Amino acid sequence: MPLDELRALLVRHARPDLSTGIDDVRIFRADRPTPPTPTTYGKVLALVAQGTKRFALGDRLYEYHAGEYLVASVDLPVTAYFARATPGEPALGFGLTLPPAAVAEVLLQADPAELPDVAPGTPAGLVVSTASAELLDAAVRLLRLLDQPRDIPMLAPLIKREIIWRLLTGGQSAVLRQFGLPDSSLSHIARAVQWIRDNYAQPFRVEEVAQQVGMSVSAFHRNFLAVTSMSPIQYQKQIRLQHARLLLAANPSDIAGVSRHVGYESPAQFSREYRRLFGGPPRRDAVRLHGHARPGAPAARRGG
Predict the structure, then answer these.
(1) DSSP line for 23-72
(2) At what angle do helices 232-250 and 185-198 cross, to 10 degrees?
(3) Residue 254 CB burial class (10 angstroms; 0-12, 13-18, ≥19)
(4) CA 258, CA 119: separation in Å to the nearest integer?
(5) CB 244 within 8 A of CB 274
(6) CA-to-CA distance for 22 and 296, rounded, in angstroms?
(7) Which end of the chain is more exposed for a tag (fewer CB within 10 A), N or C?
(8) Distances (CA, A) of 108 to 104, 165, 181
(9) Which residues contact 290 (CB under 8 A, 6 or more apart)?
(10) Which keywords accompany this UniProt record (predicted)?
(11) Residue 71 backbone zone (phi > 0: left; psi -120 to 50: alpha; other: beta)
């Protein structure tokens, strides 16, 4: 069965840094349940081959299991973890980055009659679906190339294109078609998300960002919430705090400096919001991440 072979390939080729010999392809493996870890999903296909993965986006909770996948259409700050994994039955996953230009290329060459009808409205930025047998087979054939490296330059682009086609004709068609089209509401929100990520430390007015992406303020608010499950200001806060955590892992003693660097004028507000997101005060979390919670402790690993 494709899922069985997919598991075997993932076990054989998993690396600690998640990388593979194929561009834009990553392999995830966890031998035990992982703690909830703030991370970012963006323009990616993530397929679970074994185990259970859970994640929170805003106030929405998601869970997907073996044979299920998600597609994230914009960069989304989530808290994710593997809920079920053991050394004898590790959690296994396959990830593939989905460049919008590659999706647009397939869309331009596709016969619209071959694509499923899409209901009106803005799709969510992240949805879970069951993988078809054809999608699983394409993922298996892509990973088989890791055993034949000389075939990767020629065949990997063709199979990646097939995977995009399988997604466009499957349960995620609305999401893929929206972020592959430059004038869709989802592409406008994607531009806004990128602007906020690039300027996360700076205050901004929502009206100005809406104008930049060519939307009315009311439409911008409505579509941003539909895609990201949070308001633009809440999104900025999540990005600020995730960047702060990375900075504190490297320099745990400079809480005030990190707070200012990511855009907080009030250290007290920074500490309060940091504790709410990460479950502990910045200083204690920073020491743990830096590896000084006890002598010889390894540094905390950031999850994917």
Answers:
(1) TTEEEEEESSPPPPEEEEE-SEEEEEEESEEEEEETTEEEEEETTEEEEE
(2) 40
(3) middle
(4) 45
(5) yes
(6) 35
(7) N
(8) 6, 12, 10
(9) 248, 249, 250, 252, 299
(10) DNA-binding, Transcription, Transcription regulation
(11) beta
Q: H or E segment at 69? A: strand 68-72
- DSSP letter at 140 equals H
Beta bridge partners of 81: 54
User: Tokens 């009206």 belong to which residue?
Assistant: 207
User: What single-letter amino acid sits at 182?
Assistant: P
Q: Which pair of structure tokens corresponds to residue 64?
A: 């997907």
Q: pLDDT tens for the chain, 304 residues: list them.
A: 789 999 999 999 999 999 999 999 999 999 998 887 778 887 899 999 999 998 888 777 888 899 999 888 888 888 888 888 899 999 999 999 998 888 888 888 888 778 777 666 655 677 889 999 999 999 999 999 999 999 999 999 999 999 999 998 887 787 777 766 666 777 888 889 999 999 999 999 999 999 999 999 999 998 898 888 889 999 999 999 988 988 887 888 889 999 999 999 998 999 999 998 888 889 888 887 765 433 333 333 333 4
- Residue 155 near residue 147 (C-beta atoms within 8 A): no
Neighbours of 96 (CB within 10 A): 23
Domains defined along the chain, listed by start = 2-179 (2.60.120.280), 234-290 (1.10.10.60)
Tell me, rounded to whole angstroms, the distance of Cα 198 from its chain centroid: 17
Whole-prediction pTM value?
A: 0.77
Side chain identity, residue 70: L
| Residue in the structure block whose two tokens are 């044979």 | 67
- Distance, CA of 27 to CA of 126 (rounded, Å): 20
